């Protein structure tokens, strides 16, 4: 998983190891000042933006966390199906 420099500590490393996740810290370029777009950061931000297109996920209407997690799975499955359909239509 790509993470910011906030996850460089031992606690984050232990938690990731416990769950079988390999952390890759995205570092800032040394010589740059001001706003710098981090590589791979946009992947997560884009995914959050896609999720907000599903009205049910914008607000937390669900009583149980499992229901909300299931709705996220359905939403991202729909997104993947759309992308696959677009790819197959082009070829």
UniProtKB/TrEMBL annotation:
<keyword id="KW-0812">Transmembrane</keyword>
<keyword id="KW-0472">Membrane</keyword>
<keyword id="KW-1133">Transmembrane helix</keyword>
<dbReference type="Pfam" id="PF13586">
    <property type="entry name" value="DDE_Tnp_1_2"/>
</dbReference>
<dbReference type="InterPro" id="IPR025668">
    <property type="entry name" value="Tnp_DDE_dom"/>
</dbReference>
<protein>
    <submittedName>
        <fullName>Transposase</fullName>
    </submittedName>
</protein>
<feature type="transmembrane region" description="Helical">
    <location>
        <begin position="64"/>
        <end position="85"/>
    </location>
</feature>
<feature type="domain" description="Transposase DDE">
    <location>
        <begin position="2"/>
        <end position="81"/>
    </location>
</feature>
